[in-house]
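User: Just a sanity check before I run the rest of the batch. Below are the structure tokens for the first item. I only need the designed sequence back.
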């Protein structure tokens, strides 16, 4: 009786471990796919009309006068 319980527990543990590995792989693959998708779109940045450097804003004024 004790041996059958042990075998049943072992089988259940192996099944749970296999499912854990399966879902871990799927999660990692989904994260990698999402990062690749975001990288292909430059992570949503707006290069044409977004904030750009304006040197006139930082030009020194009233120095040495």
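Assistant: Here's the designed sequence for the first item:
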């Amino acid at each position: 009786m004790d041996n059958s319980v042990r075998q049943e527990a072992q089988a259940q543990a192996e099944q749970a471990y296999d499912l854990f590995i399966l879902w871990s792989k799927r999660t990692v693959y989904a994260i990698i796919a999402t990062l690749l998708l975001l990288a292909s779109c430059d992570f949503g940045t707006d290069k044409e009309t977004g904030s750009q450097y304006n040197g006139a804003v930082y030009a020194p004024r009233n120095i040495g006068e």
